[in-house]
Amino acid sequence: MPGNPTYLGTVQDVQGATISVALDKDTVSGLAFIDGHGYRIGQIGSFVRISIGFIDLFGIVSQVGAGAVPEALVKTEPYGYRWMKVQLIGEGPRGGEFKRGISQYPTIGDEAHLVTEHDLARIYGRPDAPNFVRIGSLASAESIPALIDIDRLVTRHSAVVGTTGAGKSTTVANLLLSLSDPGRYPSARIIILDIHGEYHSAMHDRAALFRVNADEGQGEKPLFVPYWALSFDELLRVTPFRGLGDADRAALVDKIKQLKLASLQAQTRGGATADTMTVDTPIPFSIHRLWYELHRFVCSTHTAQSANQSENTEAIENDQNGQPILGDIMGVTPPKYRPITQSGQNRVYLSSAPLNIRRQILALESLLRDTRYDFLFRPGPWCPNPEGTPEKDLNVLLRSWIGGDKPITILDLSGVPVSILTDLIGVLIRLLFDALFWARQLPEGGRSRPLLFVLEEAHAYLNSGNEGSASVAARRIVKEGRKYGLGAMIVSQRPSEIDPTILSQCGTIFAMRLANASDRSHVTGTVSDNLEGLFNMLPALRTGEAIIVGESVHLPLRALVDAPAKNRRPDSHDPQVYDPSTRGGWNRPKQAEDYARVLKNWRSENPRGANNPRR
Amino acid sequence: MDRIPVNSSTIVDIGYDASLMTLELGFKQGAVYQYFDVPDAVYQELMRADSKGTFFHANIKNNYRYTKL
Predict the structure, then answer these.
(1) Which of A162, A173, A360, B3 lies 20 to 30 A from A191 at CA?
(2) What is the value of pTM for the model shown?
């Protein structure tokens, strides 16, 4: 149809959803001008429209040139025509709304047209719908906003993947800023698990920051994870008791249950009764007392033989004043026992405790003294006294995390010891999942006020083959979270290292530039659409450019994500080796430093210096 | 735990798990005892001792906590 400037060519070959279009001889390669806008013809990833009757079919160009010639014609027309392969993705009645899926196929001779901005607005449109947020503009047409359906983004989970420096954190920051817009979504609820402490600078006014070693003068709040909120298995994983034998394990269960029961009898807790309580019920107990009593049980010596031993027969040494050295529960000092003797009058015997956990008890002692674990074992107002009663209960903690006045909560885990990081993340996810699960009928439950989890650097703790508790907890969110209003946003630069079950449950994928071939194939494999052509562009995407596929977009789109304002960028930039401002870098004049401050910060495990109180 | 038969008048067989530091002894009367926190060196000495029973009474019996299986 010469004269129609959008005309590209005719359909020559149809194979399922893949069609081949022969470009018309008169179609000018390069630029076409329609309504004053210039369009490049035959761009990979651009759209074509095929009109059949009253319906327009839309497809994405996946291949152009000699390679796109249908196989049967390769011999007769090696380079005669210019060909284009198109993947069909949806249709819409003329002037009507676009829908995914094809009800009828094109046939040979149907015309293929360029898609103009007017058509694109029809496909992507709906900028006014209240459940859509803008995150940028289409890479091919900057006047058209890239819109994301937040309903599906949150409850059907999402993944943001891309090489370091491709603009991942900026994209996440931008998305979160749009989602937490106080004017549009005043009750938004987002939790970021930030293992490098990058996000606070971007969200300072919208986020409450919780961190280990908090600088409370800066408005940071201390991160506490009370150990008694952990289930028995979780507690075993973060203490030296992992890998315990069956008999010893049962004894430990009994001991903890006994302490929890005593605490419950000292102070009633709504919802828990002595009959229904299990070792996993989040009821406070003192782990310091647990340690102390186990120590007295297993490591003690006695003045009587096995059958006659009791607390009164313990052979405790006296100090200079003749007082027995009983130790201190909260100070984690054990009582001092007399050594055993083999003969003589006042014989001293070993404890008859049949438990093989002496080494674990000694390891627990040093763990309880280690200040790096204070956020867990001495959790501020949630640290129970030896009788098992803390100053505050868990509701205050939950309220500070997910019921605060700011829409975003950042749990900065940069100060958490690496050895328990994975387990701790699992605990945090599990705690919040359980809280929202049991609150599902309440106004603050997940069903009426969904919660979005942002899992930063997910490859570090959700790797495949890792049966760590973080993977288990994240799998639970992506599989069941939808029903209880929990969504996950997985952010990673190594998608190939993430458990495929988790990645494949992500309804929406934001794929930024990905250079590594195995990462790419991993992402391509999780996408259900027949869009490999689109994903072949991944290594060549610009910084800040993302291919978005899945449930929260009408159809796959290639978007240029808006860069947030300067003061809203995540603090993820690399150190500068050459710093033009000469404030840092190798080009700066060398400064005298005797490393005393280095050592002080290291010993105090506090990057801001030892003067900030730790407890 | 696997126990190795030994030549002794009181002890039938001896087993040791280094990771649990647990020594397991089978006695002539049929009882089996586990001794906890026993160092590897003590186990080695026991195995080298001419009289297992004498060594057991002198160095293990009242020196380590135990349980009867």
Answers:
(1) A162
(2) 0.84
